[in-house]
Specification:
3 helices, four-stranded antiparallel beta sheet, M1 Pyruvate Kinase, Domain 3, eight-stranded mixed beta sheet
Length: 277
């Protein structure tokens, strides 16, 4: 098995960046979801409510980010010009973030047609992983929904697409790592893996939502697929909440490692996967 894709999503819910290598940090890949857009109540903006966010592209350039929407371009420095902070909300968690200057916020508000502000998670802000899934006491996460890394398998997607009338792309699932040459849904059985020189704990399957129904290139909801089909075979039999699972969340054992596309993936330890419908 090998690492076929590395993807980072610098600004939460905006377009992803496919890269050849990346540094593994405690709270996720370098630059991954360290920025986020918030509404007037300081709550995070998401494609669930603003599908157009998918079409806003982000590039990592020297000194910052370049954001593109149609013919409009904005360069954003890695850190805001001011040091104004605010408490921001991601689901049930709150943390401190740095707020960007007004001209940046006006650009995003115009593009998304809603009042919003861009914020950065500074190094001193520590957002803890849910203790129930944490491996280490100091496990942290960026502005990602819950966990530092997300992995999915190419053949798991192929299995899904074989059941769909219209196949979907892997970008619907917004994974950081994509695995090649594994059996479909083999990742369900993994407890610990090694990618290149970095060991990862596989801590939790990813429960899927309506973001998977959004065409990431067009920024529009396309109906009920692939969730409808996934629901026929990717809900554990003993699941009380009937969550639809695709992909696995990871926590790194050794931050600081550099991962490269093509790195070998080894299964270090396995577990008993849930029985599905």
């Amino acid at each position: 098995m090998h690492l076929s894709e590395i993807n980072t999503y610098p600004i939460k819910s905006l377009g992803g960046v496919s890269i050849k290598k990346s540094i593994v940090e405690n709270r996720g890949l370098q630059f991954d979801r360290r920025w986020m857009l918030i509404d007037e109540q300081n709550r995070f903006l998401t494609q669930r409510n603003f599908p157009k966010m998918a079409t806003v592209a982000v590039k990592i350039i020297g000194g910052g980010l370049r954001v593109l929407s149609g013919s409009e371009t904005l360069d954003v420095s890695f850190e805001p010009a001011t040091y104004e902070t605010s408490s921001v909300k991601i689901w049930s968690s709150r943390c401190r973030a740095l707020i960007y200057e007004e001209k940046v916020n006006e650009w995003f508000s115009d593009v998304l047609e809603t009042n919003c502000r861009l914020v950065l998670m500074p190094e001193e802000t520590i957002r803890r992983v849910n203790y129930f899934y944490a491996v280490h006491r100091d496990d942290a996460v960026s502005f990602a929904d819950a966990h530092p890394f997300l992995l999915a398998g190419e053949n798991s997607l192929a299995d899904l697409n074989a059941r769909l009338d219209a196949p979907v792309s892997m970008n619907r699932f917004r994974a950081n790592f994509v695995v090649s040459d594994s059996e479909s849904f083999a990742e369900d059985d993994w407890k610990k893996i090694k990618i290149g020189e970095c060991v990862f704990h596989v801590v939790k399957p990813c429960a899927r939502c309506v973001v998977t129904t959004i065409d990431q290139n067009e920024g529009i909801k396309t109906g009920v697929e692939p969730l409808k089909t996934l629901a026929t075979y990717r809900i554990p039999k003993r699941s009380v909440k009937k969550k639809i699972l695709f992909g696995q969340y990871l926590i790194a054992e050794n931050a600081g490692a550099v991962l490269n596309v093509g790195d070998k993936i080894e299964v270090v330890e396995t577990k008993n996967s849930p029985e599905f419908r």
